[in-house]
């Protein structure tokens, strides 16, 4: 997982890096005129009785229900009483209130008093500024909700500062056009509608208002630029109003014309599971993946997955009542951790050992702790903290009282446990800070062997943007492969998966270019400048779209792997976000193949049961969607999808030539292996026939890696 960035961006932008806690699904990714359906009398009566405040803005700020006092004009902050002014103009339902970009309206306190409510309003922005609020409610400066036309990932969204929750809509409402927004919250189940269409649906939304007399405002909050434009017909309910009611409120909304960038909306299957930062273990014929926030799923074939449990909640079967059970580990960060981050499970002594991370976005402290269970699906009982990260300069127990230095000592999260070829148990871990570290573990206790401190650095340091280390031994090549995620996890954070290898579990690890992955400290390389990190590691996958198939990923990362000794197949499992789908993340499984140089390559399409075999020239020639993953991190911060490698068309010809968008040559170097030369650089890889979900056809693919650490992909287009 991504921790707090040491990067030259504003603190406000840093907030975007938070991840959704449980699976999110978008049921509609385009907006337009809404077909109206008849409301039943019962529905009308229910919605009418739950209406607690109605501001029509017909030349005043009065509440039509008379339940609350009228609103008050304020300046450019919710708590600035003086200096504001508003006016009125024609709106969608009579008159509307006009905001000049320097003022707001303070609404009465206590408009919402529990965790079930709805807010609906019309918006017509004159200008759209990132983070600017329209409807804002807060019971403290770090506990709030905000409806923003342009949130941290560039989309219109509902945003919460309590546990940092994003509810993106997949689009940005236009300027100089009326759009209708509705949010409904029902005991943590949240939905966001634009122009009557559901654009976001999820659970786990924080309870900000129960038992607190919260403050509310229009157009202003405590920090950001005020809203400039019009608002109309604000309605607040103490229930989650019905879809029929929402469509009725949005009647008359025009179609939103989305930009060309927003047109890249790849296909998703809403039945796929979401487990952030997955790690895998196979038990009794089933594959289990464990991730952040107690996300767990299982599968019998690595294709069809079933969610286990219900995320971070008291009744989760994995760790029931986790805030009590894990209290010690959660309280080490300051402020306290609100959940657990990346996990890893390994079987030791006929028990399952679950290693997990605790951290808080506003704390430099973090920890790796342990819980155990007799059953893979829990319940797990807390055992204790293994390692701690401290404030910079704070005395460290692991360093025998010496001060912690966050440029050379590790970020203590993202554990991965593995046995080496000689049967020794190791734990690799780390994030940013002083790099990736490895410790030898005691298999009898599950704890580190004594007198190792934090262990040995095997990659990174000086705040280089890498995390989520994972090591896999391959008995055919006799190499240990260190997988890392560079960048950061948000849709615009450029997360990408890289690899280096070593003959020893504790290194040294080298990439194909010959870089020692620990040189950041030895050469005093400034890792905060991400350009300095980009040359390191073989980049296996980053942001991409196969345009003909309409398939692609944003920020794929934090991977685990699985090697099947019986079949010889090797799989890589990771979470990823998707172009056009905001912060939604799902699990993906791809098969990996070894190239002739002993490096793994990730096959282009998700695993669907395929097995590699010998291929003839006739089978592999044809037109391909071609992608070069490059070697950059592809982070854009505030512009998700702003840096995507889009496919181009090339032809692999029977005479061994390559024509089209790139020129070069190709040749089979074995039953399925291939050498591809483009612009003088040779890529070594493999062919594999795979299922293209977008085209709904089996197609030939290739994946190849150069000695410069760059991956290219091809996905064949069927002949017409």
From TrEMBL:
One of its GO terms (biological process) is carbohydrate metabolic process. Keywords: Glycosidase, Hydrolase. InterPro entries: Abn2_C (IPR032291), ConA-like_dom_sf (IPR013320), GH43_arabinanases (IPR050727), Glyco_hydro_43 (IPR006710), Glyco_hydro_beta-prop_sf (IPR023296). The keyword Glycoprotein does not apply. It comes from the Bacteria. GO terms for molecular function: hydrolase activity, hydrolyzing O-glycosyl compounds. Pathway: Glycan metabolism; L-arabinan degradation. Residues 604-714 form the Extracellular endo-alpha-(1->5)-L-arabinanase C-terminal domain. The record marks 414 as: Important for catalytic activity, responsible for pKa modulation of the active site Glu and correct orientation of both the proton donor and substrate. The active site is at 277 (proton acceptor), 467 (proton donor). Pfam families: GH43_C, Glyco_hydro_43, Laminin_G_3. Belongs to the glycosyl hydrolase 43 family. This is Beta-xylosidase. It comes from Halobacteroides halobius (strain ATCC 35273 / DSM 5150 / MD-1). The lineage of its organism: Bacteria, Bacillati, Bacillota, Clostridia, Halanaerobiales.
